[in-house]
User: Fold these one by one.
Assistant:
Number 1:
Amino acid sequence: MEHEDLRSLPVDEVIQKVGVSRAIGIKHVASLLFTYRCTIACKHCLFNCSPWQPDVYISHEDGVEFMRQLRATDRVIHIAGGEAMMYYQKMLAICQDANKEGCAPHFFETNASWCVNDHITQTRYEELKNAGILGVLISADPYHQEFVSPEPRIRAYKWAVEIFGEENVAASNTSYEQLSEFRDIVKNEHKLAEYSLHHVPRLVGRAGDVLTRFYNDRPLDELSEDPLWHGGHKTRDCKSEFDSQEMWEIHIDPYGNIQTCCGIIIGDAHKKPLLEWMKQGFHVENELVNMVYENGPYDYLDLAVKYGYKPKEKYPQKCNMCWEARKFLRPYFPETFGPGEIYDTEREHKKGES
């Protein structure tokens, strides 16, 4: 079947036909951000995840309820983070109870740092499969491999294919040599700059603070057609990142915050189910969300100036302009520009050096 024909089918049917990996691009995704803590601290992390983040994770009750809400979107559902496998038993218990209601996540994301031997890797994959999970996404790039050696990543992929099937593993069969090359890239400033410029991240979160040195600043009027996190229309506004029909990805975090663009809270899953927010439109009740929906981050920059922000004449990226304005505005609007984990990059940087 063609891509558009598959998109009209229910998500579970699409996965049955083509597997989790292909279904992600067809139906798009919705995730439970299990925690902002992570075993590593990647330089490109939009959510600013690290080992030094607060020991906060989704409660069991919320985890199961948010799975119900996420499943109602007809998207491919996954558990993300941070690194949810830091709280493996709690994650497994949520999946088991969600599975009893037919709303287990389709896959989970991992950096593979927990795959320390074959027994642990095989056992956990099998337990998660028995809890209803169909597949896994395993990261591999210079940023992750700065912290994760080749062996756990290779082990994670091998057992994932064995237990879930290759069509349900969103990961490449990256060789030991390639993974080693990734580690070499991040150790070399010139190589890292070259890699970053050829694989441009959204310059928000930690990426917005530590990778901007590789990019040239550009006048504001040149930023308007920059692509968004997941592509979208190249326009001044950010509608495609916030419109429920167009957005590529949507998240519910441990606090019940609904986000699609990292660090802009567009709803509360405790107050109203996710699907109701999506049907209503996230920009309807929140003027700050409506600003970026209608006019992109330029309105945030203007608002920040009114509160005393001294804008630069140039920024390297439209998303970075947004990030800088939001960091300044967060103390005035913490209910929208949050949670704190994403914004407290200075604290994270200091702890990372200690």
Number 2:
Amino acid sequence: MVFTEIISIGDELLIGQVVNTNASWMASELNKNGINVVQITAISDRKEHIWKALDEALERGQIVILTGGLGPTKDDITKPALASYFDSKMVFHQPTYEHIKKLFAERNYPVTDVNRLQAEIPEKCIPLVNPHGTAPGMWFEKEGKIVVSLPGVPFEMKSLITDEVIPRLKQKLALGTIYHKTTMTHGMGESALAELISDWESALPETIKLAYLPQPGIVRLRLSVSGDQDSKLKEAVDEQCRQLGTIIPDLIFGYDDLTMEEVVGNYLKKSGKTLSAAESCTGGYLSHLITSIPGSSAYFKGSVVSYTNEAKIELLGVPEQNIIKYGAVSQEVAEAMALGALNRFSSDYALAISGIAGPDGGTPDKPVGTVWIAMASSNGITSRLFHYGEHRGRNIRRSALSALNMLRLELKLRQTGE
């Protein structure tokens, strides 16, 4: 295996001003090409920190990729720090300067003395042409190991990774294969799921590693394998996913990056059915998920956010006596909301959610996290009670996902009979 470390440079990362999306994107791309990322480090814009991070990274792996600190201003110190680290003097690189002049001419900007400094690079590096910016990437080699420095601007970095860095690494090194496949599940927590699939997990080949990746409403099960034979690695992981599918068929809604809202949308498009929604505690989040999918207008007719009792009565026709007798968070009200949306939008299916998202509003009988979800169609009404907990944001997301999953299982049964 080829081991790599990513070093992200910038005080903005350490104070939480900028989220380090560069590192996660690079790690994903490197993995796809058989390069194993063993560590991601964020450090400040200081020469001593850059040197120390490089020393430690080069002990752990063969490749180090740095991002950030290559701009033309005085706070960008990565380039001089690398020049001194590799005991290299700075030289003026005319091709880089010509590239800078061309870029600025296209944008009708003058080239200043500060911009001209971008063409000065360490003599011992191989410059990597940056088609989208003025700071070239820099490729160093030392004692059989490789250090690459790239701009921190995401679209500049991504272009250099795909067009320069990965092709060069493939030429230099014998890269293997790293294959991941993630099974997306909904409907059971991490610990209960682990117990349910314990025998399957224990029987996994030693070469295949399982990781549990929980998030609100979803547990992702990622299988990973590495080696030399692409097709056999993929076949081995796919077979394990197939076996898992026989153990928890209703919990699995997709694989890899497929979302619940995409799955439901695909079922609706395939069946030619339409959907509407009535939301209370989720405040429109369910509708947001549905409409985040391009083309959702083909199956989503609309929604009513009936946050107050008056809205439930006036917009959805919920009987006032049901609210008085059972409360807004009740099976009777949720089912009436679903029926109201079904009739108002003349849709084939309607989903309704009424609950106590929190952090306030709970009672001993109905604590925070109590949610009723109902689904109505020409086949009748079904509803279910959920108890989620005290975190408002998680309750809203889990409620919306549970509503979509209720519809997913119904559509799956209608279309496949499973």
